[in-house]
Design brief:
Helix content: over 70%
Structural class: mainly alpha
Order of helices and strands: HHH
Radius of gyration: 32 Å
Shape: rod-shaped
Strand content: under 5%
Number of helices: 3
Number of domains: 1
Amino acid sequence: MAQDTSPRSEASVATLIGGIVNDAKDLLIQEFTIAKLELQQELRKTKSAAISFAIGAGIAAVGGLFLLLMCVHGLVVLIDIPLWGAYGIAGALLLVVGAILLARGKQAVEQIEVVPPKTAATVQDTAQWVKEQTTSNRVH
């Protein structure tokens, strides 16, 4: 049997390969769009949580300040020390607690994922599939 090498069969193969490449390109664009939308959604959630946290922290800080002033003046009355000594004790305790909280916060920030792992894996799988499809078409 003779091979059909007419321009028509070569054009149809080229059209098929072109269609596969265009479909793969469209698929990759859609995957990146999905990843972008997921990232935007995570950023919106992060922004909302940060606003709630900031408002709550501000209110708690004012309340904590009043409680701290009460404790300092209570130390002066109970222990009979100068006011500056009571402020020094309170300041040292707050410094230790603050350092511990900063260390915990740093650990929490290090665990935040910028790119959702599911989307990243899907994009990698799609890229691998496109690579396999384009290289298998060249061999045949």
